[in-house]
Amino acid sequence: MTSHPHEPRTLRVALLGHGAVGSEVARLLTRDADELAQRIGARLELVGVAVGSDRPDRQTAFDPALLTTDAAALVRRGDLDVVIELIGGIEPARSLVLAALEHGASVVTGNKALLAEDGSTLFAAAEDAERDLSYEAAVAGAIPIIRPLRESLTGDHVRRVLGIVNGTTNFILDAMTTTGQGFDEALAEAQRLGFAEADPTADVEGFDAAAKAAILASLAFHTRVTIEDVHREGITTVTADEIASADDMGCVVKLLAICDQSMDGGAVSARVHPVMIPKDHPLASVRGAYNAVFVESESAGQLMFYGPGAGGAPTASAVLGDVVSVARNRLLEVTAPPERTHARRRLLGIGDARTRYHIALDVDDKAGVLASVALAFADNEVSISAVRQEGHGDDAQLVVITHTATDAALSRTVQQLSDLPMVREVSSVMRVEGEGL
Ligand SMILES: NC(=O)C1=CN([C@@H]2O[C@H](COP(=O)(O)OP(=O)(O)OC[C@H]3O[C@@H](n4cnc5c(N)ncnc54)[C@H](OP(=O)(O)O)[C@@H]3O)[C@@H](O)[C@H]2O)C=CC1
Ligand SMILES: N[C@@H](CC=O)C(=O)O
């Protein structure tokens, strides 16, 4: 810490990354310097901003002399109080965060990919260094969801966390549904608006949502879930025809993250894949790059968190909230309670253990299948990704794609479907191999 008894206190801040989020954080740190100083009780002095490339046309809200392409040297200065990591990805972000902690700074990051891959190492390093590592921006942009799970609900028993946690894919699916825009065009727009990751494959193939699911499941169930533990499918296989067919059946397609724990508090499951949702379900009305997360816990019951899930300004709000909080802790010379690696719980229905099934039905009326969609959606162990028609005329069949981790859940779904009055017969149940719907 850099303060002296008779001088106004100053905390030194370094920013790593000046992209969609970093540039907005820098702008707000500069514009709101006086107000932030009042709220914190110390001024935040931006002492360096690391970027990947020298760009002569870069617009900055601060003295451009603060720019550097040597992030490693910046985090090793030894006099930093707070480092804000907004580069993204695994390396060099991981080495920079570890070096910042080792050299005495608290860290604020929005890097879900890194936390979901190697959170244990980072949290252990923060605990060893007696510094904060805060990451509200890592899940669902502006929505406060990390702190509620980490603090407010920590005395309760969370059973399920479920929702839309990727703004880019929600933006794309929404545009394809409501305006008939093509996938590529909608993705380009999401990139232009600063929603997408540097490599948008992370968004559209579900890696970003899977990283967020791993973080949410770790916090909700007091265990350590990594991205490898999360069953993942993206939206690249969702076709315009499937969206139209979902629409015909009164549904929309959403990419959901679903994390749950068995009733005995043992097994944990986390998965990300497209799900058909009836239009009257609250998640169906989450539009554009908005996110929504439902939390179900034993005593609190159902909670819903909703708001902008991506973009420079909304994410900067979450980052600055963390900056104020860790800065206050620096002044008090305390840290938030450490996030230790908890005992690993049994993980259920993860990775290859969660399987997709293709259930073909001979039906009299497509609408009857809607009931099963609603039923399956309410079931903790099964969800329906798509219902589509295959074949034409007398040969036409309805095909339901479900995801399930257990044979019992699959049998239950098949039974539910065959019990529907409009279903003449369940003609086949096949396991689906490989990626895609
Ligand atoms: N965008 C969003 O809506 C959200 C993003 N996040 C997370 O926030 C983080 C930042 O995202 P975003 O701002 O969108 O990313 P961008 O790709 O827009 O910005 C990344 C920044 O990092 C800089 N950078 C790249 N490599 C290095 C390096 N080796 N050393 C120093 N700087 C480097 C880039 O430099 P240069 O400018 O030279 O290219 C750029 O300024 C990511 O972890 C992301 O997942 C979290 C929530 C929402
Ligand atoms: N690319 C991410 C950004 C926020 O986390 C998204 O689209 O949600």
TrEMBL record:
<dbReference type="InterPro" id="IPR016204">
    <property type="entry name" value="HDH"/>
</dbReference>
<feature type="active site" description="Proton donor">
    <location>
        <position position="212"/>
    </location>
</feature>
<comment type="similarity">
    <text>Belongs to the homoserine dehydrogenase family.</text>
</comment>
<dbReference type="GO" id="GO:0009086">
    <property type="term" value="P:methionine biosynthetic process"/>
</dbReference>
<dbReference type="InterPro" id="IPR019811">
    <property type="entry name" value="HDH_CS"/>
</dbReference>
<feature type="binding site">
    <location>
        <position position="197"/>
    </location>
    <ligand>
        <name>L-homoserine</name>
    </ligand>
</feature>
<dbReference type="InterPro" id="IPR045865">
    <property type="entry name" value="ACT-like_dom_sf"/>
</dbReference>
<comment type="function">
    <text>Catalyzes the conversion of L-aspartate-beta-semialdehyde (L-Asa) to L-homoserine (L-Hse), the third step in the biosynthesis of threonine and methionine from aspartate.</text>
</comment>
<protein>
    <recommendedName>
        <fullName>Homoserine dehydrogenase</fullName>
        <ecNumber>1.1.1.3</ecNumber>
    </recommendedName>
</protein>
<keyword id="KW-0560">Oxidoreductase</keyword>
<keyword id="KW-0521">NADP</keyword>
<comment type="pathway">
    <text>Amino-acid biosynthesis; L-methionine biosynthesis via de novo pathway; L-homoserine from L-aspartate: step 3/3.</text>
</comment>
<feature type="binding site">
    <location>
        <begin position="16"/>
        <end position="23"/>
    </location>
    <ligand>
        <name>NADP(+)</name>
    </ligand>
</feature>
<dbReference type="GO" id="GO:0050661">
    <property type="term" value="F:NADP binding"/>
</dbReference>
<dbReference type="InterPro" id="IPR005106">
    <property type="entry name" value="Asp/hSer_DH_NAD-bd"/>
</dbReference>
<keyword id="KW-0791">Threonine biosynthesis</keyword>
<keyword id="KW-0486">Methionine biosynthesis</keyword>
<feature type="domain" description="ACT">
    <location>
        <begin position="358"/>
        <end position="431"/>
    </location>
</feature>
<feature type="binding site">
    <location>
        <position position="112"/>
    </location>
    <ligand>
        <name>NADPH</name>
    </ligand>
</feature>
<dbReference type="Pfam" id="PF03447">
    <property type="entry name" value="NAD_binding_3"/>
</dbReference>
<dbReference type="InterPro" id="IPR002912">
    <property type="entry name" value="ACT_dom"/>
</dbReference>
<keyword id="KW-0915">Sodium</keyword>
<dbReference type="InterPro" id="IPR036291">
    <property type="entry name" value="NAD(P)-bd_dom_sf"/>
</dbReference>
<dbReference type="GO" id="GO:0009088">
    <property type="term" value="P:threonine biosynthetic process"/>
</dbReference>
<keyword id="KW-0028">Amino-acid biosynthesis</keyword>
<comment type="pathway">
    <text>Amino-acid biosynthesis; L-threonine biosynthesis; L-threonine from L-aspartate: step 3/5.</text>
</comment>
<dbReference type="InterPro" id="IPR001342">
    <property type="entry name" value="HDH_cat"/>
</dbReference>
<dbReference type="GO" id="GO:0004412">
    <property type="term" value="F:homoserine dehydrogenase activity"/>
</dbReference>
<dbReference type="Pfam" id="PF00742">
    <property type="entry name" value="Homoserine_dh"/>
</dbReference>
